[in-house]
Amino acid sequence: MFKIIHYATLPSSNDEAIRLASAGAPEGTVVACREQTAGKGQRNNRWVSAPGENLTASLVLRPADMATDELFLLSKAFSLAVAGTLNRYGIDASIKWPNDIYVGNRKIAGILIEQSFNGNDLGFSVIGLGLNVNQVIFPPMDITPTSMAAETGKDYFDINEILSSTLDGFAALYKSPKEVVNRQYMEKLYRRTGYFPYKTKDGEMLIAEIFDVADSGELVVRDKNGKLKSFLFKEIEYIIVE
Questions:
Q1: Is 193 within 8 Å of 209 (Cβ atoms)?
Q2: Torsion angle defined by CA atoms of residues 150, 173, 13 and 157, in that order, rounded to the nearest 10 degrees
Q3: Where in the sequence is the domain holding 112, given as residue range(s)?
Q4: pLDDT of 9-44, one tens digit each?
Q5: Are residues 227 and 135 in the same domain?
């Protein structure tokens, strides 16, 4: 299913995958690079990665017959594939909604999904992954990062092997029934049980528990009074204290 194209250096693996997809690259095309000079993250942030030490790759998808309000299933399935790979290496990873991968309260991977539409129809989707693998020294960040090496004490992991494992895991989930993906995603969610602090885009502090994640991607939380509230991405922020 996958054709991996390796690059030494790119500004952004997602931008290159979008270029190839726009030129007709088939589903399963993967752009992998040793170094990104302008890697992209969520919320218009940059993804900073030491050259040659981490996994940076982007996958082209052309999901047929998937309704636009169900596209978040791609995010769920790919997040599960990344978490599953880490689990196979003995790292207890969880998914921080919508699709960051965490070990405890530390971020180990980020996923960026970009879509291209032809009118109301999806032309293609590009899923970008930045996974910290062998890097153990990080620049100052707003979040606390970690890596496979830092979590295990192992000096070196084969990045291509990790990419193959993740792609194989995604291939199994890609065609799985929606109910299976939804159930596994909820089971893997960071802070799945218990009440935790959040901050809304309006500055409201909220103590709530995760109730559900809608097919279209909204996070549904329940406060201590039993009231349900739904939030789109960027409308709510986790408060994380190390």
A1: yes
A2: 30
A3: 3-188
A4: 999 999 999 999 999 999 999 999 999 987 665 555
A5: no
